[in-house]
Design a protein that fits this description.
The chain has helices at about 10-15, 55-60, 90-95, and strands at about 30-40, 45, 50, 60-65, 75, 110-125, 135, 145-150, 155-160. It is built from 3 helices and 9 strands. The protein has one domain (about 10-160). Strand 8 and strand 9 (about 155-160) form a beta hairpin. Bound molecules: zinc ion (3 copies).
Length: about 170
């Protein structure tokens, strides 16, 4: 899969968050689909997991940039940030995960699996440091999607068919 598929790049993103065109504020809420890795035991998360994206991936997954002063949308796209499928984002946010997490590895029966997920998150940017992402869909909730599952005991892995985010 090509790693950079979003509509924004570093330069256009920096321009969007440089200042609001309507009210002159320089603070924005940015929503982005970014990847998170978590350990799952017998089909349930054993801890909260950790972010595994970098700044480039964050910009790549960005789908909405809203001014914190006036609410004006500096950027918004309903297309899938990963594969650009039309209204793929709207579908991804509303859909439950398309992949069931097995209770154990089908090959070696290990009950501990590593799940890489892509999840919607928000950060606040501008007027100081960008905040840490706040996850807006958790394991089992609509919008939380599985990119891959890997066994911790053997080489078994599984990926959903098609785009991990929107399913197309
Ligand atoms: Zn504004
Ligand atoms: Zn997609
Ligand atoms: Zn295994």
């Amino acid at each position: 899969m090509v790693s950079s598929m979003g509509y924004l790049d570093g330069k256009s993103y920096a321009a969007k968050i440089a200042g609001c065109a309507r009210c002159d504020r320089k603070a924005f809420e940015v929503a982005s689909y970014i990847e998170r890795e978590l350990q799952v035991m017998i089909g349930e998360p054993s801890q909260d997991g950790r972010w595994i994206h970098d700044e480039e991936k964050f910009i790549d997954g960005a789908y909405r940039i809203r001014c914190l002063g006036c609410g004006d949308e500096a950027y918004a796209s309903d297309d899938c940030p990963r594969c650009k499928h039309t209204v793929g984002l709207t579908e991804a946010l509303a859909a439950p995960a398309r992949v069931a997490i097995p209770k154990m590895c089908p090959k070696c029966k290990t009950t501990s699996l590593t799940v890489t997920a892509t999840v919607p998150a928000r950060v606040r940017t501008g007027e100081g440091q960008q905040t840490a992402p706040t996850q807006t869909a958790r394991f089992g909730e609509p919008g939380f999607h599985v990119v891959s599952i890997a066994c911790e005991g053997c080489d078994w892995t599984s990926k959903p068919p098609g785009c991990a985010l929107c399913g197309h």
